[in-house]
Specification:
Chains A, B: Keywords: DNA damage, DNA recombination, DNA repair, Metal-binding, Zinc, Zinc-finger. Two copies of one chain form a homodimer. With about 200 residues, chain A is an alpha/beta fold. Chain A has a domain of about 130 residues: Dna Topoisomerase Vi A Subunit, Chain: A, domain 2 (3-Layer(aba) Sandwich), CATH 3.40.1360.10. Chain A has eight helices and seven strands; from the N terminus they run H-H-H-E-E-H-E-H-E-H-E-H-E-H-E. A five-stranded mixed β-sheet of chain A has the order 4-3-5-6-7. Chain A has a two-stranded antiparallel sheet with strand order 1-2. In chain A, a hairpin with a 6-residue loop joins strand 1 and strand 2. In chain A, helix 1 packs across helix 2 and helix 5 crosses helix 8. The radius of gyration of chain A is 20 Å and the shape is elongated. In chain A, about 35% of the residues are buried. Bound molecules: zinc ion (ZN) (2 copies). One zinc ion binds next to loops of chain A. The site of one zinc ion has 8 residues of chain A, from loops.
């Protein structure tokens, strides 16, 4: 028997995280029954988004432009704090706390030699360029302090130490977000109030 | 600030049932990070599926063809049982029990005058045509017994009585699936074993 379009829809919806066969089936029926228009718009946005969204040239945040919203926001380029996160989800978690108005750098991972993730995969030479700026070029704003907001894992620690060395050789202060994030917990799951405390209580690294 | 493509993705993913802002965000990041290829295929399938999947001319099951897989399956057209369900999800639930090898008729709802759902919206004239066949035309197989597999709601009961009248005037026997489905429960949530019992123990309506 040939695979029907409906079967294909149900199968492919399972590429979404947390979506198994039952949920995928419910989604497909729901779209067909009630949301043809909205589902079609979603399909177009997904196709365009997945083709066009890349990484910000400066901070590796997701954007379809050369530079992201944050890197081109003049209120934020005047701020000399740079928060380093493992993922864009973590960036969003820090943003949602409302307690940070500096810029970011997104590693998209952590050092993990076993998985073949080294300094290059994390864009650390790009980070070095960001930190090397003396602020004379307005397109390369000054960074005076790096705030590490990495997960408290073994890889996160190793990555923190590696970045600390880059900061030292560029005379940039380095801190880490404070206790408040449960060890073993996931940064992106933290509530905004805990995240605020962690940002306020940051310590010398 | 202009809406970014990523924001559009997160917003539009919420047209999926059970997907709120947090889940939509996680889905968007997951696709961007790990599933660009699969996500793009999903987008194409959704666009095609939502444009092309319509209702089977005979049973109103979802299909991109004129007739669905079930209506064109010769093993099933030889079977003179016709199971009437409210939705394609309910059809799938009966199929998964593995205890039914007849055909279906999908109402896509229940009689509900307040919501403007009358016999026409449920395709009951189409059902009447199916039941009127004397089996001499191989493209219109004979139906000897209708099995009602509607939810035990007020609307389900009203609809059952309406269909019973159509069956009587066409000399088609009518039964309903047996106890086993909890009253007030949703048919599509029933486990396959309960569904099997309900089909086996069907009674004269
Ligand atoms: Zn940026
Ligand atoms: Zn059919």
């Amino acid at each position: 028997m040939q695979t029907s379009l409906l079967q294909k829809m149900i199968e492919q919806l399972q590429c979404l995280p947390g979506v198994g066969p039952k949920t995928a089936q419910r989604m497909a029926y729901h779209l067909l029954q009630h949301k043809r228009q909205a589902g079609t718009e979603l399909a177009n946005t997904l196709a365009t988004g997945l083709a066009e969204i890349g990484q910000c040239k400066q901070c590796r945040n997701y954007t379809e432009l050369e530079l992201c919203d944050i890197c081109t926001n003049s209120r934020r380029t005047q701020n000399t704090l740079l928060c380093i996160v493992e993922s864009v989800s973590d960036l969003a978690a820090v943003e949602q706390s409302g307690h940070f108005s500096g810029r970011y750098f997104v590693l998209h991972g952590c050092l993990s030699p076993i998985d073949g993730v080294g300094p290059q995969e994390l864009g650390l030479s790009q980070l070095e360029e960001v930190l090397a700026s003396d602020g004379s070029d307005p397109s390369k704003p000054l960074v005076e302090e790096v705030i590490l907001a990495l997960n408290p894992s073994v890889e996160g620690e190793a990555t923190s130490h590696y970045i600390a060395d880059i900061c030292k050789s560029n005379n940039v202060a380095i801190t880490r977000i404070a206790h408040g994030i449960p060890v073993g917990g996931e940064l992106e799951m933290v509530d905004t109030s805990t995240m605020s405390h962690a940002l306020m209580g940051r310590k010398q690294f």
